[in-house]
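Exercise 3.2. Students should predict the tertiary structure of the chain below and write it as structure tokens, then compare their answer with the key that follows.

Predict this chain's 3D structure.
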Amino acid sequence: MGALEDLVASHLGGFSPEGGVHLPNTPGYDACLLAAGAANYACLHERRRPPVALQPARESDVVLAVRFVTAGIERGLWPDGGRVDGSPDGHDDGVPLTLCGGGHSELCVRNGAVLVHFGRMASVSCDPAGRTVTIAPGALLGAMNEAAQNHGLAVPTGVFAGVGVGSILAGGIGRLARARGLSVQSVVAMRVVTADGEIHALGEGVDMNGLERDLWWGCRGAAAALGVVTSVTLRAAPIAPAISHGRRIYPPFANAADAADRLRRIETIARACPEATQVDVCVARAGGAAAARGGVRIGVFPCATDGGDVPADVVAGLEMTPRHVTRSRYCDVPYHSMLPDDERDDESAPGDDESAPGDDGTPSQATPGMFSYVRQWFVDELGEIGAAAVAAAAAAAPTDESLVMMQHAGGAVRRGGRPADDDDAPDDDDDLDGAGALAFPHRRWEWSVVIIALWTDPGSRARATAEAWADDAFESLRGCGVGCYAVDIDRFRRSGDAAEEEVKLAFGEVNAARLRELKRWVDPTNVFAAAVPL
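Answer key:
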């Protein structure tokens, strides 16, 4: 046996029968990689090959996996794992381990890095009396939302059902953000395995030592850089059996200036909405010949989460009609789609033939054969400059599928997740920038502006063009941004000074410094190097 096989035999022999330990060219290895890369085509197209693929089924398996990777570091077994040229700290660090839940990030599978895929740890349990939901690291948002809805509850989550726990612990922005805050603001407990293989129970009302209190703070924002979270418990709130939501794709605007004017009108309407109502917006280039002339398409997606209708003044202000609005269970509201609907509107809405709820919600970035690259800003107010930047970016998009998504929040996010009727909720101006209770610091924002480059050409030139477009759009919004989302930091695509700047934008200089100090204590050998570069 070689050194790797020896290490597998000595450290992974206790893996549970339900779990999986897969070396290359053994049964289960390719199936594990296919599952891990199913939501991010680049992982499959580039045929990334981990030295070992692990599928834990229990928390004890996770402990063994982490100790296995740590022992491999000591023996020099993964020197080139996911190697990054010019990492932020000036060293040419390798990445020994990657974690895969939902699998939407290119960071989930890297050449030479041990893969831990959580598909066999996907349990979801709901405590209706305590109004909490507990999920394992392989659970997806759709399953969590379904379980909560079955008990008349909902948890603030992202808008795509196929996303995993990573989004929850990094932020989690969705339709309940205005009313209930972010996912990370709703976390009440978690269990974490650190690089030494120790298990830490963290949370509200838990007896924690000093290090664990720091972990409790740090894992709500930067968990992927500090350990493996094996379970998360979130606070849930009552939700109506059906909620009102809508979709309208406006006829193409002739140019970016006209589109920017409409975005300003939409922003005014959105900011005036009651906190139970939010209005997400998608902006893309017009298809066909209109794209060459700089045309822009805008879609609006209002949603009222209190069981009432989307307010009539919002519907009217967005130039929607009753047929643009429908009702469904909260967990069944589809992902924002800019794709045309199969059923065309009647003549009562002249020129609008691509609007009606009921699309299947399939996001383009999850389509087989589609590559993606994402940048993001938190923005408090677009204003004239921001609206112009978003519209110009959409007009210049490299493909019809690329878009700028504006997720609407404000409201409870500004109060740290406290609803407006909570007597203990702080005023909007209290501790907005310090956010000392958790590592995720950002509260003073109304929009999460997500720049999504999508393309199908596997060539390097197509990737360079798409990434340059997203990077340029990101820079054009710099004057409006108040921070960025840690989940979209990509140290493989943007290493060195760029990644260092994103860490500061994601956490603020004070929180970033505190996280670096915590990282030195809990992960001195940088086992969890693939995510946030601390």
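Discussion points: DSSP finds 14 helices and 20 strands in the chain. Residues 243-410+445-488 form a domain with the Vanillyl-alcohol Oxidase; Chain A, domain 3 fold (CATH 3.40.462.20).
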